[in-house]
Design brief:
mainly alpha; single chain; 14 helices; 337 residues
């Protein structure tokens, strides 16, 4: 993990995305988990300081679009860093932004239409279920205010009813894919899209107490999806850009695989998944992921930004893939301990 984290920091100036964009936000979410581990094990605050510098530079404020999940994702890191330093200036802008959304809920449609931006104000695409919902469960954990749970539960369930395929136990990326098919005739289920959902569920479950009345729905969905992921794990140990057409997309995709590893490791650690059943799949996937990292620490086989399966090569990397890898690794470290 250190090798991969350090490679990314050394190459961060080459990243073209805005620092408050969802791409970098995903890196930060993984990096703050790594920062906590590095500080605990090696008394190394380097990574925390890097994250604090970013927060200070942008006054701990999320990106511009008020409702858009992609622009809110960075708030997860802000809350996590706040938990380390307890500086209210790190948290207050997030509370103000989310409270405004609660007071002015969007009435946008879940039928996605990029020519109508109101259809992107709610969680109308499955990636959004990683970007935004964990903010609300984090705020509930920090404040104890149930208004955050009431909102996230209503919106999350609306998105799930709309996008979740009960037969395949996976999420369509958005409404445009309901009737599309892969070359082999199967439905289009994007690897990273479903990885986003599992990553987000893992984040949410960490903040929902065991006896919380809202928890059971998310726990059940988490277990059901983890079970499905193990069923379709490929012989190479990983998951591909298309979950149901791995022959057309014949190489592994490490961002989706890392999110799935993260979920499996968390599920085993928390007793939600049977260790005897899931541990072999988890270890096979982790070993395969390590094989995609070059000698310098560059994580390969990360699909570029997209909304559906695309071809991937070993030279492709992205900040969000590194973030997912760090999430997976820190959860595996807990298991190793």
């Amino acid at each position: 993990m250190k090798k991969v984290a350090d490679w990314q920091l050394a190459h961060q100036k080459e990243v073209k995305h805005h620092p408050m964009d969802w791409t970098n936000a995903t890196l930060y979410i993984g990096m703050v988990k790594w920062a906590e581990l590095a500080d605990k094990v090696d008394k190394d605050e380097t990574y925390y300081k890097w994250l604090v510098d970013i927060g200070n530079r942008y006054s701990w404020k999320a990106n511009k679009r008020m409702y858009h999940a992609d622009d809110l994702a960075v708030c997860q890191m802000f809350i996590d860093v706040y938990k380390r330093y307890k500086d209210k200036s790190m948290l207050q802008p997030t509370i103000e932004r989310i409270d405004w959304i609660l007071e002015h809920p969007s009435k946008g449609s879940l039928i996605i239409d990029y020519s109508n931006q109101t259809t992107l104000e709610r969680w109308s695409w499955c990636d959004a279920l990683f970007m935004a919902p964990p903010i609300f469960t984090r705020l509930y954990k920090e404040t104890g205010n149930k208004k955050y749970l009431e909102f996230v539960d209503k919106e999350y369930k609306a998105s799930t009813i709309f996008l979740y395929d009960l037969e395949e136990r996976m999420f369509f990326r958005d409404s445009r894919y309901f009737y599309q098919r892969e070359a082999n005739g199967k439905k289009v289920f994007w690897g990273r899209g479903n990885g986003w959902v599992l990553g987000g569920l893992t984040e949410m479950l960490q903040d929902l107490p065991k006896k919380n009345s809202y928890r059971q729905f998310y726990e059940d969905l988490f277990v059901e999806m983890c079970n499905r992921m193990v069923e379709i794990q490929q012989p190479d140990g990983l998951w591909h850009a298309s979950l149901l057409d791995p022959e057309t997309y014949a190489v592994p995709e490490t961002s989706c695989s890392s999110f799935i590893i993260y979920a499996l490791a968390y599920g085993i650690n928390e007793g939600l998944l049977d260790k005897a059943t899931y541990l072999p799949a988890l270890l096979k996937a982790w070993k395969a992921t390590l094989g995609t990292i070059d000698n310098e620490g560059k994580l390969g086989y990360v699909q570029p930004i997209g909304a559906d399966p695309k071809k991937v090569t070993k030279d492709m990397t992205e900040v969000y893939g590194v973030g997912a890898f760090l999430m997976a690794g820190t959860e595996l470290y807990k298991m190793a301990k």
